[in-house]
Amino acid sequence: VTFGYVEDGLVSLAVPGTFLFFLFFGRIYALTGAFIVMIFEMITGDIATFGVIYVIVITAFGQVFYLLFRDTTEGGNCERAALNDTCEIDKMCSFQNFEAWMTMVHFTMGEFDVKFTY
């Protein structure tokens, strides 16, 4: 892991965090106070519940696609030179790595233009 990737990950967490931190300062005004309290209740209640359910459903679909595609390669049936011979594309097509889980997230957003859809 290089430091560039770690720094990008930390910045992607810090930017929304600073936005939420600045919302606390808006609670002192009468016009924005009730609105900001409502936003925090939505984030902690509804959106957190949706996130938990979303992760459970995406993980379940990822497991189902793993079971469906575990014996296939990009071209169709699995034809390997040796019994334990694998490659990265084969892992992607059989939903065995993190990119496959992210592909499921893309599927829920309506992006079905993937090279191994049949």
Word description of this protein:
With 118 residues, the protein is mainly α. It has one domain (3-108). The protein is 68% helix and 3% strand. It contains four helices and two strands; from the N terminus they run H-H-E-E-H-H. The chain has helices spanning 3-25, 30-69, 88-93, 98-108; strands at 72-73, 76-77. Strand 1 (72-73) and strand 2 (76-77) form a beta hairpin.
Characteristic terms for this protein:
118 residues, mainly alpha, two-stranded antiparallel sheet, 4 helices, 3% strand, repeat, membrane, TRPV, calcium channel activity, transmembrane helix
Indicate the overall shape.
Answer: elongated
Strand content: under 5%
Strand order of the largest sheet: 1-2
Helix/strand order, N-terminal first: HHEEHH
Mean pLDDT: 75
What is the makeup of the main sheet? 2 strands, antiparallel
Structural class determined from secondary elements:
mainly alpha
The oligomeric status of these chains comes to: single chain
Helix content estimate: 55-70%
Please, how many domains? 1
Count of helical stretches:
4
Keywords: Membrane, Repeat, Transmembrane, Transmembrane helix
Transmembrane segments: 20-40, 47-69
GO molecular function: calcium channel activity
Topology:
Blueprint: H1 3-25, H2 30-69, E1 72-73, E2 76-77, H3 88-93, H4 98-108
Antiparallel strand pairs: 1-2
GO cellular component, one term: plasma membrane
InterPro entries: TRPV
Keywords: Membrane, Repeat, Transmembrane, Transmembrane helix
